[in-house]
Amino acid sequence: MRTRWRAAHVLAHQGGRHALLRGGEVVWEDDTLVHVGRGWSGPLDEDIDLGDSLVMPGLVDLDALADIDHLVLDSWASPDRAPGLQWSRAYADRSRDVFSPAERSTIRTYALVQLALHGITTYMPIASEVHSSWAETFDELADMAESSRRIGLRGYLGPSYRSGVNVVHPDGRRDVAFDEERGRAGLRDAERFLDHVEQLGDPLVHGALLPCRIETLTPELLRATAELALRRDVPVRLHCLQGSLERDLVRRLHDCTPLQLVERTGLLETRLLVPHGLVVDRHPSVQGEDRGDLAVLAGAGVSVVHCPQTSLRYGDVLHSFGAYRRAGINLCLGTDSFPPDLIRGMDTGVHLAKVVDGRADAAPAEAYVEAATLGGARALGRDDLGRLAPGARADLVAFRLDDIRDGVQDDPVRTLLLNGSARLATHSVVDGRPVLVDGRLPGIDTENLRRRAQSLFDKMRAAYSERDVRGRTATELFPPTFPDFLADPLPPT
Ligand SMILES: [Zn+2]
User: Residue 336 C-alpha to ligand 1 middle, in angstroms?
Assistant: First the structure.
């Protein structure tokens, strides 16, 4: 089966880097690209003219939201309400799954559909554990792998695991409540899942070790993770260097910094991905200057999964994209929270970098596009992803730029970032198979999913109350923007 896409703009790959091809075409045979350029004259089974679109490598999201939106709830919290969104210490002893397995399955499908609709072709999932009795299970991820195969995305999957959970004591003190046996059981599930992936033998489903946040893992579990990753040759993604609370907890529990803990437990020897990676020596909350942390990360070949939109919405920023890049760190991108829109994420990142570094060329659009494509591929050790060149996998996406609201074009990449969003994605292909077609996912009832997700969100929102250390209602924890309109208001005083 041989297919051609033609478009006004193609982000091709040439001489080791991306190159803009005007009025170009991409041809693939089965799962592999065979031609990127102009003037294909061979036979075709399918020929699609995408008109005034930008065709580019499919987006790689390595901290991909695999959940319902929670940022809409928890990114506004005042200092007195914020601890209420965590587990109380008492809840840790009676925690429960807010959702049934069937409901979790719907949530996963909903999230994967969102990724596909936003032009993402390769992902590594992240979901909140706040709503689970502990972390993710083998069955949950095995089910997710099936949904992922049905939709046709390329996934790097594994159940999350941890030996502790962030809790709040009645006096407001933050802590981690440990249950080490649950951590060991989680790692066993993760290894079993690697076996499961091998048995599936599906080129779109890959195994990865995806432990939870660093402060919730014992050094023993971190060490066992590193050993397993090396033995099975799979990537590890560990949330760390994320915030100052994490840093305080790790210092208190292990008398070292999070980066030292990563180093001591052998994780720097693995293919390590670090989402966020904000709180290093350069960060203003630490020393505010480079004292060698970036060199340690770069020297170990660590990939930082930068999530500009999430960081900004929780009030933080990378210090800085340019500095990390110059230090030789592989930067890739993640969405991490809703909406999984890497176009908006890239735009946010480009402009935050201007503020942080104080210059307009601090992190140009092309640097972000490289992170979203080549950087992600590099983090996964894949030189056949993230680029449109003969021999690479046929993973690609088209963004239309033909609406008057998209504005004028000088450079299609800048127009897409500045004026567009991932909602402009109309077509995508993964491993040569169509996923997104004319802006839709064939065979998926998105309207039904939208309705079900809303009722599951309402259930999730209501469940915060039972975990709050002060037992506040959801309305108290999540006050609305404006008061409700009253049918019979009191007269003004
Ligand atoms: Zn994250």
Answer: 5
Q: What is the DSSP string of 373-436?
A: IIIHHHHTT-TTSS--STTSB--EEEEE--SGGG---SSHHHHHHHH--GGGEEEEEETTEEEE
Cα-trace Rg, the chain: 23
Q: Say yes or no to pLDDT of 493 above 90.
A: no
The percent of residues above 70 in pLDDT, for the chain, comes to: 100
CA 28 to ligand 1 center in whole angstroms: 34
Residue type, 487: A
Q: What are the sequence ranges of the domains in the chain?
A: 1-55+387-444, 59-385
Residue 344 Cα to ligand 1 midpoint, Å, equals 17
Instruction: Respond yes or no on whether the N-terminal peptide bond of residue 320 is cis (omega within 30° of 0).
Output: yes
Q: What is the dihedral of CA 188, 194, 199, 204, to 10 degrees?
A: 150
Residue 180's pLDDT is: 96
Is the domain spanning 1-55+387-444 CATH 2.30.40.10? The answer is: yes
Whether residue 488 is predicted with pLDDT greater than 90 in this model: the reply is: no
Q: State in words which class domain 59-385 has.
A: alpha beta
- Please give the distance, rounded to the nearest whole angstrom, from the Cα atom of residue 69 to the centre of ligand 1: 13
CA pair distance 58, 55, nearest whole angstrom = 9
